[in-house]
Specification:
This protein is an all-alpha fold. The protein has helices at 9-29, 35-61, 69-84, 86-100.
Length: 101
């Protein structure tokens, strides 16, 4: 693991938002509705998988400077799209468009 400069509050917010978006989509797609189940999924996915995936971008591309927000958002979108698939995401957005606005 490369040595990474301290993460800024802005970077932490970006990473946290990506993780939470990923988990919310996962729970919705898998009909996980109870708060207890969602918390269990959050604890497992956030701590064991997602934080590492999204921190890897910082480690690989911006170890000594603040991340470029636009590039990070492209990366996080790619991770989410490659995980769930474009068609599933389109269907999810169509089905949840009223609750997302």
């Amino acid at each position: 693991m490369k040595k990474v400069k301290m993460i800024s509050e802005k970077e932490l917010d970006l990473i946290n938002d990506s993780c939470c978006s990923f988990i919310a989509m996962y729970c919705a797609l898998n009909n996980i509705e109870s708060e207890e189940e969602q918390c269990a999924v959050f604890d497992k996915m956030y701590n064991e998988d997602l934080i590492s995936i999204f921190l890897k971008f910082k480690e690989d591309f911006y170890p000594n400077t603040e991340m470029n927000e636009e590039e990070y958002l492209k990366y996080s979108s790619k991770v989410i799209t490659e995980t769930f698939g474009t068609e599933v995401i389109k269907k999810f957005i169509t089905e949840h468009s009223k609750t997302l606005s």
